[in-house]
Write a structure and sequence with these properties.
The chain has 493 residues and is α+β, with helices and mostly antiparallel strands. The strands form four sheets. It has an eight-stranded mixed beta sheet with strand order 6-10-11-18-17-16-15-14, with helices on both faces. A five-stranded mixed beta barrel has the order 1-2-3-5-4. It has a three-stranded antiparallel beta sheet with strand order 7-9-8, with no helix packed on it. A hairpin with a 4-residue loop joins strand 8 and strand 9.
Length: 493
């Protein structure tokens, strides 16, 4: 830190000298005609003869001065190129300025292109402009920012130093663009719903609470997009989707961040099975659009095969396949004892049958679902917003699927419950769980019930975790790698 302070002080002193000499250290704009990537592409076949008349701009990353000549490396969002300075070309005073420039300074340059004897494409600088003075030195030799926590905290430096980080966020943008294009081509319209809500719902999660001073009312940051999107379907928008931030007051892990990007989409007159087919199309549009021509995606040491057909299993059949146990034949007490063996740290004492089956599935099956797999027929008591399964005489299951890829839950979908009386009864049951201490239980949303009473068409809906999809398609180890500014513990702790 002391060395950093000394270096910064030197830069501040240098900046003061520049100001005294009449230099403007922070320009308003610059006519950047070409990106560096475009120059590299357009002049790929350039020889040793000078050609072109180009203006570009970027950040100075390397500088070498040899008497009357100097070399530098200029970098922008698209690439980097070598710069060649000569005192007799740029002039005496500009050359003195070049020698004063620091690594990290942002400059605009005007010149011609040629290829050096060693074959490197180079921009022969005729004149240049200091656009922004950098006061804080970059990590030494561009590899000094290795601490992961520091990289997440100072993402702006991480992106300057590591080209792959910047490339990943470009890929994230590309994936979201592919999603939007696919949704619009399928007839969906993009909408926006409230972030601050009076009643949270649509997922089992603990919310963040805030307070509105003017209304003197506690509000919540949304944990899901579901109930407001369904209200729009009630209102006559038959195909809607939203890509938005949601907030869940829960732990942080490689796949969980309290603030994350969720996409949900709903289609009137469709059901779970229609949405299963469309979800396949949507995911494959992303896989194909990201250049995986064989539809096989490498993630870590695994290769995930997205080629059709994708496997479909009920939750209880999946447990039986991977454990040999028929959970439907076990009593509640037997399920609790079995879960205790699978996950000794979990307190199963108050769990009901459906929750026990879900926890057994998570403990024994999820990690095996590497290639895309739809898990259907979830217990009713953990699915308060889904319709009961058609033809199920037991009444235990609903029409719901979760899509698993690489052992992760990637999507969650229902044939949406559109019976307001049934929905109200399920909310009331969830309210009892909430009063018993379950902070993640759904609450009774009276306005949502009122909307259903006007009539929600038969509908199918899906939620997809955008961050996890980006992780998968960019081979990111943790969700923090695909969120530009993840939530972190306090600095120094």
């Amino acid at each position: 830190m002391e060395d950093m302070n000394i270096l910064m002080e030197q830069r501040f002193q240098k900046a003061e000298q520049m100001k005294e000499e009449g230099l403007e250290l922070f320009q308003y704009k610059y006519d950047k005609e070409f990106s560096i990537g475009q120059i590299l592409k357009d002049y790929e076949s350039a020889g040793e003869e000078e050609s072109g008349d180009l203006r570009t701009a970027g950040r100075l990353m390397i500088k070498r001065v040899h008497g009357k000549t100097g070399f530098a490396d200029l970098k922008d969002d698209t690439g980097h190129i070598q710069l060649y300075f000569r005192r007799d070309v740029v002039g005496e005073d500009p050359y003195k300025l070049f020698k004063k420039l620091d690594i990290g300074d942002i400059i605009g340059v005007h010149g011609t292109v040629f290829r050096t004897h060693s074959g490197e494409l180079t921009l022969f600088v005729k004149d240049f402009t200091l656009l922004t003075k950098s006061f804080r030195p970059l990590p030494e030799k561009f590899h000094g920012l290795q601490d992961k926590e520091l990289r997440y905290r100072q993402r702006y430096v991480d992106m300057i130093v590591h080209d792959d980080v910047r490339a990943r966020f470009r890929k994230r943008s590309r994936i979201i663009s592919l999603i939007r294009r696919t949704m619009e081509e399928a007839g969906y319209i993009e909408v926006e719903t409230p972030v601050l809500v009076q009643m949270y719902g649509g997922a089992d999660a603990r919310p963040f609470t805030t307070h509105h001073n003017a209304l003197n009312r506690d509000l919540y940051l949304r944990i899901s997009l579901e109930t407001y999107l369904k209200r729009l379907v009630v209102g006559g928008l038959e195909k809607v989707f939203e890509i938005g931030r949601v907030f869940r007051n829960e732990g942080i892990s490689k796949r969980h961040n309290p603030e994350f990007t969720l996409m949900e989409y709903y289609a009137a007159y469709q059901d779970l099975y229609d949405q299963m087919e469309f979800t396949r199309e949507l995911i494959l549009a992303c896989v194909d659009g990201m250049g995986y021509e064989d539809r096989k995606v490498a993630y870590g040491d695994k290769t995930i095969d997205f080629n059709l057909p994708w496997k479909t299993m009920s939750m209880t059949d999946a447990i039986k396949e991977y454990t040999g146990t028929d959970v439907l034949s076990l009593s509640v007490d037997e399920l609790r004892r079995y879960l205790k063996k699978c996950n000794p740290e979990l307190d199963a004492g108050k769990m009901a049958r459906g929750k026990l089956i879900q926890e057994i599935f998570e403990a024994t099956v999820e990690e095996h679902l590497i290639d895309p797999t739809f898990i259907t027929d979830h217990p009713l008591e953990i699915s308060p917003l889904a319709k009961k399964k058609r033809g199920d005489d037991t009444g235990l299951f609903v029409e719901r699927f979760e899509l698993f890829i690489n052992g992760w839950e990637m999507a969650n979908a229902f044939s949406e419950l559109n019976d307001p009386q049934d929905q109200e009864e399920r909310f009331k049951s969830q309210e009892e769980n909430f009063r018993a201490g379950d902070e993640e239980a759904q609450r009774l949303d009276e306005d949502f019930i009122r909307a259903l009473q006007y009539g929600l068409p038969p509908s199918g809906g899906v939620g997809i975790g955008i961050d996890r999809l980006v992780m998968l398609l960019t081979d990111a180890e943790t969700i923090k790698d695909v969120i530009p500014f993840p939530l972190l513990k306090d600095e120094g702790k």
